[in-house]
Design a protein that fits this description.
By secondary structure, the protein is mostly helical. The chain contains 11 helices and no strands. Helix 6 packs antiparallel against helix 7.
Length: 260
């Protein structure tokens, strides 16, 4: 069975499982923020001062900063990937796939590709809901400018989203590597700790090596004040190297585990 066939099987299972709906939570939170801002129950501030009117892109940027900064997106990705891999390994559901596929690394690759697809779909839905909410409730009021582009750098926002995607891929590979020998709950907790430790270490100035990870490039103070293409590319390369190493470790551990 080819990797693409595993991918199709995983995508089918993703859309069938009710727990996949947790990736809709960011969009629901975006809608709540929009309604709260419209009613005055939620106050949104920029880095320097209280902004009285937002463009669509600026408004989405604020929502994105809030959700990614708190790690909400990462938490949901960790939870779903723990269900997807560790849960199946320890409940024995993955046995049939192992028998059909043969080579276990194809299962890892197929599951990883399906999770990446789900991340992209979740972020796309978040953008659509935020944009629709803006033009339905904000743009025609004093709280919005009615324009799409604003003061926020589109390039910086795109790089922030890409950094979050790469960080999410890193966290998924962590769940795969440790989920072989641990249950879903422990896999979720350990990976969650890794995520928040990474976020904390990226803010320490004396740890220069963290600049070569996506944890650092997610930070807004980097994106808007110290942004350089070269440093950002190095961060991507460093993260991909780390991801590749963890994937190989996960495959090695998965090949040795006894599937019952």
């Amino acid at each position: 069975m080819r990797i693409f066939e595993v991918y199709k099987m995983e995508m089918y299972k993703m859309f069938k499982r009710k727990n996949s709906l947790i990736l809709v939570i960011p969009s629901l939170l975006a809608l709540l923020i929009t309604l709260g801002y419209k009613s005055g129950a939620v106050k949104i501030t920029s880095e320097e001062a209280l902004v009285t009117a937002y463009s669509c892109l600026d408004f989405f940027g604020v929502i994105w900063t809030f959700l990614s900064g708190l790690g909400i997106i990462g938490i949901l990705i960790i939870l779903l990937s723990s269900f997807q891999f560790s849960g199946e390994v320890h409940e024995g559901q993955i046995k049939m796939m192992v028998l059909r596929v043969g080579k276990r690394e194809k299962i890892i690759y197929g599951k990883l590709l399906s999770m990446i697809t789900m991340i992209i779909l979740s972020i796309g839905l978040l953008f659509l809901v935020s944009t629709a909410g803006y033009y339905m409730f904000i743009s025609s009021s004093d709280l919005g400018t009615g324009t799409f582009l604003g003061t926020m750098s589109e390039k910086a926002l795109i790089f922030s989203i890409l950094s979050t995607v790469i960080t999410s891929i890193f966290l998924i590979t962590i769940t795969y590597a440790i989920g072989v020998n641990m249950n879903m709950f422990m896999t979720f907790i350990i990976t969650l700790v890794v995520m928040y430790v990474g976020k904390y270490l990226s803010g320490l100035e004396n740890l220069k090596f963290m600049k070569y990870t996506s944890f650092f490039s997610e930070r807004l103070d980097f994106l808007f004040n110290d942004f350089t293409n070269t440093l950002f590319i190095k961060g991507f390369l460093g993260s991909f190297l780390l991801i590749a190493l963890i994937v190989l470790l996960g495959i090695m551990r998965f090949k040795k585990v006894d599937i019952r």
